[in-house]
Amino acid sequence: MSFITDKQTLDDLNITGKFSPHSLFSLFNATQTRGGEKLLDRMFHQPLSDPAAINSRSDVFKYFHERNLSFPFSAAVFQEAEAYLGGSTGSSFLMVAGDLLRKKALHLTIKDEQYGQFQSGLLAAIDLLNTLQDFLRKVDGPATTQFETVKKALNAHRTKWLDGTQAGQPLTLFQLARYDHFIRHVLREETESILDFIYHLDVYIAVSNVARARNFSYAQALPKEKNIFRSTAVSHPALEKAVANPLVLQEEQNVLFLTGANMAGKSTFMKSLGIAFYMAHMGFPVSAKDMQFSVRDGLYTSINVPDNLNLGYSHFYAEVLRVKKVAEEVAEGNDLVVIFDELFKGTNVKDAYDATLAVTKEFSTYRNSFFVISTHIIEVGDTLRETCDNLQFSYLPTIMENNVPRYPYTLTAGITSDRHGMVIIENEKILEMMEE
Fold it and tell me: Which InterPro entries match (predicted)?
């Protein structure tokens, strides 16, 4: 079963998108090859749901994280070798030699460039294979099937001729035909595996180097039956000086009811948590210390729900449809992470109170999922305390210093009593300005 989510969640958390400002994909995209970038994009769109697969990928990233390696290929050589290896050749040595003889004749008579491009591409491919072989001799690599397969291919008896072929060494037409037939026909499967391996190597090095620079760590995936999430410090990966907060979610307390004033940091904390869950399911480094999590079937958020004027949807109705979508997934028995920021803010206070209370109570009965629900309507929390035993209540405080609010962004147990909206309005002198 694959990890389920949707575009709304990816947009809320700004996960994907090469051209999306400050997206998580852009943060990690320090790849050197087009193939590496495409592979990274696929990983971002295909989180994993198997604990063993997640931990295995994390272990590979950790291996490179600890060694601080650089991508071993020059961009020019790699691009030329990649273009050459992507082409086809004859199925027999005689066919290759005949075609090459024709190209050389055209080169000598009308200065056709095909022969020179062929020779340059082949030499670049040989250089690439030798460079990879040298790299793997110096780096043991993690014990994965992919690494072992490539090592075996490069150390096989039929590739020993590579050791005697140096970059820039002139080759005869006979050698060119022989090597081309060997690389692009006899070893076709192996060279495709090697190219794919290099794209993975590109991603491993790029991502681990970003993680090291930002002091990210690696989460441990647990079976879903454990039904636990814990971390001593969750923060937002795109903020360099983000305040980190601890959090534990488990079956006995699977709902976090979050309150706090505007600008106190509720949305940022909820995004941080959603991103940590998503990146951990990818097996990627996370901005969370000592993180352990039971794998979930999916993640849904409702943070920036847009209205849809073309369909005649108001903001409130769009919120209702969003809650309905998530409720359907929860009711089907999926183990989910659900994050709702400011439920039903598109309607009046009375309806918002009733709806928030009813929806939170109903969702809380599904103890196989984790829920984080924030609201300004703090009275809801007082009622939920009396009716639900599996909620934990936290808030992000506002500290007033000389009538000026300060936000420490530290998660605090309880329900906020902060009511400083009018103080902020008065500080901005809005009413005085209008009276004048």
Answer: DNA_mismatch_repair_MutS_C, DNA_mismatch_repair_MutS_core, DNA_mismatch_repair_MutS_sf, MutS, P-loop_NTPase
